[in-house]
């Protein structure tokens, strides 16, 4: 009897052992697990890389507990993967399918390299509920509107059960030449400042922590999600976005975890948010220009007014609008921002400051631990009014009213903008309007301890609407 040929399990954005169809396909025979850091194909943002470092460490440990090692490589996957498959005599490379244009191009190149000596790349559904090609609207086209998309997925009923993690793995020794985790240089590198200093107290990357968080959230907070999800000053959402981005959890596991606790309104609403992620992947697959080009073509002529000073003030949380500044500082300090505030800060950048949405999307991708090409691009286009099923451009969020409504007790702003902490609620979201005595009493000197507003809300709103009108009239 001849021994079974080994296979290679190529981990990418499916950094988990449970419900991992690529690992499952390989687990019956000898296998080698590999991760390739391929900065030439796509360079993940800084905060993403911090998460990746720790998630790879957790994955390596989990594999070791089952008798296998995680082989790490740095280089171009299109060369490294076929070479590794050849070196260990693997007939197939098993991987979870990815949907971003850069990953599609790379998978084509890897598949070609493997085919050249009779091997194959096998891609499995690992990070969505349903492959984007499988879902078509009544007209036979991809969905361009979220609600019927979500309805169609819900109508398909329960997804198949999640696959358990393998108990033992039959590991093949990797050839020499692997990289150490430290050599991947994923953490902030001196002389750059350690911008991730606060992350370890806030986040625990890795599958085990993700599973525990999902179980807790599905059992407890999810029931209250409808009430808590819009208040940035409380812990009302799951914070599972980085786990879903890196595939420490599969959407199928999420679905079953929630369904296991019933279908009350809170849990239904939460599941629908998870379907926004699915919709983003659907859109990215069918419209690969999503990260760079407005999907509504007329927006290509939008009269943006690029201005580095405006962009820097927004990035640093120094716009003079407390809810915007709190959000941008949360992003920098925590690598994450509450969804309501992502909408407010995004709208402020593109409408109040007339900065191109691509600039905001790039900053988010670099600073979010959940920075995700599909969800980020889709949401920036949504905020900017130029995507499919977007908020209309003429709906300009008022940062004062948004602050007063969603941070009524000021807990969020006071935490992230401590220089305003002593202002009474009445003035917290518009310090420039406070009487001088109130400012003095709170220790606030506008222009010194806290910035004057970068733009005046009414004027900025009118300017944004005029730019939009010019676009529609073809005069931009
Ligand atoms: P929960 O409220 O607990 O939701 C559960 C899960 O559903 C999330 O983890 C996420 O996977 C998914 N989800 C929720 N809302 C959305 C949404 N609007 N679009 C897509 N998926 C959603 N999300 C990212 O994962 N990566 C990004 O890069 C990203 N960029 C964004 C940029 C902007 C301008 C905006 C407005 C939103 C962006 N989002 C992004 C969506 C959303 O803000 C985050 O998914 C959410 O805040 C993550 O927190 P949570 O895990 O506590 O979410």
Can you offer a commentary on this structure?
- The chain is α/β, with parallel strands linked by helices and 476 residues long.
- The protein has three domains: 7-126, HUPs (Rossmann fold), CATH 3.40.50; 128-162 and 206-286, Alpha Horseshoe (Serine Threonine Protein Phosphatase 5, Tetratricopeptide repeat), CATH 1.25.40.80; 297-470, DNA Cyclobutane Dipyrimidine Photolyase, subunit A, domain 3 (Orthogonal Bundle).
- Helices cover 46% and strands 6% of the residues.
- It is built from 21 helices and six strands.
- It has helices spanning 21-26, 46-64, 77-88, 101-115, 146-155, 199-202, 207-219, 225-228, 241-245, 251-259, 265-286, 308-316, 322-334, 339-352, 357-367, 373-384, 399-406, 411-416, 425-428, 436-441, 457-472, and strands at 7-11, 30-37, 70-74, 92-96, 120-124, 170-171.
- Strands 1, 2, 3, 4, 5 and 6 form a six-stranded parallel sheet that branches.
- β2, α2 and β3 form a beta-alpha-beta unit.
- The longest helix has 22 residues, at 265-286.
- The termini are far apart.
- The mean pLDDT is 96.
- Bound molecules: flavin-adenine dinucleotide.
- The site of flavin-adenine dinucleotide has 27 residues, from α9, α11, α14 and α16.
Share of β-strand residues: 5-15%
CATH architecture annotation of the largest domain: Orthogonal Bundle
Q: Using the coordinates shown, work out and report the CATH topology of the largest domain.
A: DNA Cyclobutane Dipyrimidine Photolyase, subunit A, domain 3
- Distinct small molecules: flavin-adenine dinucleotide
Which stretches of 5+ consecutive residues score pLDDT under 50? none
Helical fraction: 40-55%
CATH superfamily of the largest domain: DNA Cyclobutane Dipyrimidine Photolyase, subunit A, domain 3
Instruction: Tell me the number of structural domains.
Output: 3
Shape: globular
Give the termini separation: 73 Å
């Amino acid at each position: 009897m001849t021994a079974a040929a080994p296979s290679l399990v190529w981990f990418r954005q499916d950094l988990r052992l449970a419900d991992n169809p690529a690992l499952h396909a390989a687990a019956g025979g000898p296998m080698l697990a590999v991760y390739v850091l391929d900065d030439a194909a796509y360079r993940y943002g800084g905060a993403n890389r911090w998460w990746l470092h720790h998630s790879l460490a957790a994955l390596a440990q989990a594999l070791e507990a089952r008798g296998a090692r995680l082989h790490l490589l740095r280089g171009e996957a299109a060369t490294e993967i076929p070479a590794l498959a050849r070196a260990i005599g693997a007939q197939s490379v098993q991987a979870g399918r990815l949907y971003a244009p850069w990953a599609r191009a790379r998978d084509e190149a890897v598949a070609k390299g493997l085919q050249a000596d009779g091997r194959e790349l096998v891609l499995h559904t690992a990070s969505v509920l349903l492959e984007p090609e499988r879902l078509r609207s009544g007209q036979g086209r991809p969905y361009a509107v979220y609600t019927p998309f979500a309805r169609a997925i819900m109508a398909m009923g329960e997804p198949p059960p999640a696959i358990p993690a393998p108990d033992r793995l039959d590991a093949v020794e990797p050839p020499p030449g692997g990289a150490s985790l430290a050599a991947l240089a994923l953490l902030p590198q001196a002389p750059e400042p350690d911008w991730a200093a606060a992350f370890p107290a806030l986040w625990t990357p890795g599958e085990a922590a993700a599973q525990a968080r999902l179980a807790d959230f599905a059992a407890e907070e999810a029931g209250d999600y409808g009430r808590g999800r819009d208040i940035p000053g409380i812990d009302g959402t799951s914070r599972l976005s980085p786990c879903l981005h890196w595939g420490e959890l599969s959407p199928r596991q999420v679905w079953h975890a929630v369904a296991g606790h019933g279908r009350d309104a809170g849990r239904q609403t939460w599941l629908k948010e998870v379907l926004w992620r699915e919709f983003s992947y659907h859109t990215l697959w069918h419209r690969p220009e999503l990260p760079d080009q407005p999907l509504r073509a007329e927006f290509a002529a939008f009269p943006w007014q690029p201005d580095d000073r405006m962009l820097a003030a927004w990035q640093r949380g120094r716009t003079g609008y407390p809810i915007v500044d709190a959000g941008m500082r949360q992003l920098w300090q925590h690598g994450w921002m509450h969804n309501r505030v992502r909408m407010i800060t995004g709208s402020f950048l593109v409408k109040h400051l007339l900065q191109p949405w691509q600039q905001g999307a790039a900053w988010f991708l670099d600073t979010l631990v959940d920075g995700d090409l599909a969800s980020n691009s889709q949401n920036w286009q949504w905020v900017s009014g130029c995507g499919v099923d977007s908020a209309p451009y003429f709906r300009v969020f008022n940062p004062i009213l948004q602050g007063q409504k969603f941070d009524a007790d000021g807990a969020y702003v006071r935490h992230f903008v401590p220089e305003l902490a002593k202002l009474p609620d009445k003035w917290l979201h518009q310090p420039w309007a406070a009487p001088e005595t109130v400012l003095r009493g709170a220790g606030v000197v506008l222009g010194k301890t806290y910035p004057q507003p970068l733009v005046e809300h009414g004027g900025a709103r009118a300017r944004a609407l005029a730019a939009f009108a010019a676009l529609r009239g073809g005069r931009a």
